[in-house]
From TrEMBL:
The keyword Membrane applies. This is Phosphate/sulfate permease. The keyword Transferase does not apply. Keywords: Membrane, Transmembrane, Transmembrane helix. The chain crosses the membrane at residues 50-68, 106-127, 147-165, 195-212, 224-243, 263-280, 301-321, 361-382. It comes from Thermaurantimonas aggregans.
Length: 397
C-alpha cells in the first residue's frame, strides 16, 4: 500500500509539473514588459529554428576542423563568402533589388554575377593572383594565415546571426580584425572607416539639401525608360568598386596569391552564393533599404548608387588600407534621410517626423557600433600580440 501511494503522489507531482510548464508557455505576459520580451524571444526561436539548427551544426563543424589549416582556410572562406555578401548586399545591390522587384531573379543574377566574375578575374590577372586588390598588403594583414583559431572560423557565423537580426554590421571589422597581427592594423581600419562615415554623411546631406528642388522634380511622374539603363549602369559600377574594397573580407582566409584552381574555386562558390542571395531577394536585411524614403523609384536608386560609387572610388585611390564600406553606406543613407525629411521642397515623398528619422539613423549607427565592439572583443580573444599590447598599455598607466 505505501508503495502504491508513493507511486500516485509521484504521478500527481509529475502531472502538476507538466501542467505548470504548460501554463508558463501559454501564459499571457502582455501586461508585463519582461513577459513581452519573453514572448518575442520564444516566437523568434520558433520561427528561426531551422536557421538556428544550421548555425549550431556549422559551429560544431568549425570546432572540429579549425586545427587543420588546409581544411580550415576553405571552410572559413565558405562561411565568409556567403555571410559577407549577404550582410553587405544592402549597400551595393540593395537599391538595385528594391527598384527592380519586378524583374526575374535569374536575370539580376546573371548581371550581378557576371560583373563579379569580370572584376575578380581582372584583379587576379593585374595583381598576380591577389583578388583583394592589394587590400591585404597593408600593415597588419599581409601575413598569410598558417593556422586558425575557432573564433576566426566562427566570426562569419556570428555575422550570419547578426544579418538574420537585420543588423548592418561591418563585415570588415568582424572578419578582418581577427586576422590583424597588431592593434595598429585595426586602428588604421577604424580611422579610415570613421572618416568614410563623416565624408559620406556630409556629401549626402549637402547633395540632397542643395539640389532638393531638382531631385524632387526628377521623381515626379513616371520614370523615362532611360533611367532603368542608367540605374543598371551605376549599380554595375558600384558593385565592381565595392568588390575592389571588400573582396579582402572573403579572401583573408586564403593565400594572398591564388593559383588558377584556387581562383576557380573562389569565383565559382561566390558566384552561386550571389545567385542564392538574389533568389531570396536580399533576405531580411533588405528591409533596411525598403524602409528608407523613395528607394523603390529607379531615379532615387540611381542617384544613391552614383554618389556611393564616387565616394568609394575616392577611398579606393586614397590608400590600400581596408575600410568599412558599411559605415560609408550608413553615413550616406543618414545624410540623405535627414535632408529629404528636413527640406520642404520634397513634395513627392511622404515625409517622416524628424524624431522618427533620427531614430532610424541612430538605430543603424548603434548596430554598426555594436558590430565594432563584437569585432574588437573577438580580435582581442584571438590575437596574443594584441592582448600583450593591451597589458603593456595598462601596465604603463
Amino acid at each position: 500500500m505505501p508503495s502504491g501511494k508513493s507511486s500516485k503522489s509521484k504521478k500527481n507531482t509529475s502531472s502538476k509539473n507538466q501542467s505548470l510548464a504548460f501554463d508558463l508557455l501559454s501564459l499571457d505576459f502582455s501586461s508585463v514588459l519582461i513577459g513581452r520580451r519573453y514572448r518575442v524571444l520564444r516566437l523568434f526561436l520558433w520561427k528561426e529554428r531551422q536557421f538556428l539548427q544550421s548555425i549550431i551544426i556549422f559551429f560544431i563543424i568549425a570546432g572540429i576542423f579549425y586545427p587543420y589549416p588546409k581544411v580550415a582556410m576553405w571552410l572559413g572562406f565558405a562561411f565568409a563568402g556567403y555571410s559577407a555578401i549577404a550582410n553587405d548586399s544592402i549597400q551595393t545591390i540593395g537599391t538595385f533589388l528594391s527598384s527592380n522587384a519586378d524583374k526575374k531573379w535569374w536575370v539580376l543574377w546573371l548581371f550581378i554575377g557576371g560583373i563579379f566574375l569580370v572584376t575578380m578575374t581582372t584583379g587576379w590577372i593585374i595583381y598576380d593572383g591577389d583578388v583583394s586588390f592589394q587590400r591585404l598588403q597593408s600593415k597588419g594583414f599581409e601575413k598569410v594565415p598558417e593556422s586558425f583559431t575557432f573564433l576566426q572560423l566562427a566570426a562569419p557565423l556570428v555575422l550570419l546571426i547578426l544579418t538574420r537580426l537585420r543588423m548592418p554590421v561591418s563585415t570588415t571589422f568582424l572578419l578582418l580584425s581577427t586576422f590583424s597581427a597588431t592593434s595598429s592594423g585595426i586602428m588604421s581600419v577604424l580611422q579610415k572607416s570613421l572618416f568614410g562615415y563623416v565624408i559620406a554623411f556630409v556629401v549626402s546631406l549637402s547633395v540632397w539639401f542643395v539640389f532638393a528642388k531638382g531631385i524632387n522634380n526628377l521623381n515626379k511622374g513616371k520614370a523615362h525608360p532611360i533611367w532603368t539603363a542608367l540605374q543598371w549602369f551605376t549599380s554595375g559600377v558600384l558593385w565592381s568598386v565595392w568588390l575592389m574594397q571588400d573582396a579582402a573580407n572573403i579572401a583573408v582566409f586564403l593565400p594572398r596569391s591564388l593559383s588558377i584552381y584556387e581562383f576557380l574555386a573562389f569565383v565559382s562558390y561566390v558566384f552561386f552564393g550571389i545567385g542564392l542571395l538574389l533568389y531570396f531577394r536580399g533576405g531580411k536585411i533588405q528591409n533596411i533599404i525598403n524602409e528608407k524614403s523613395a528607394v523603390k523609384d529607379v531615379r532615387g536608386a540611381t542617384i544613391i548608387d552614383f554618389i556611393y560609387a564616387m565616394i568609394l572610388l575616392f577611398f579606393q585611390n586614397l590608400s590600400n588600407i581596408p575600410m568599412s564600406t558599411t559605415w560609408v553606406f550608413l553615413g550616406l543613407l543618414a545624410g540623405r534621410e535627414i535632408s529629404m525629411n528636413l527640406s520642404p521642397l520634397y513634395t513627392t515623398i511622404k515625409q517622416k517626423k524628424l524624431p522618427i528619422v533620427f531614430k532610424l539613423v541612430w538605430r543603424d549607427a548603434l548596430f554598426a557600433l555594436l558590430g565594432l565592439l563584437i569585432s574588437v572583443a573577438m580580435a582581442v580573444a584571438v590575437n596574443p600580440s594584441i592582448q600583450k599590447e593591451i597589458m603593456n598599455f595598462f601596465n604603463g598607466l
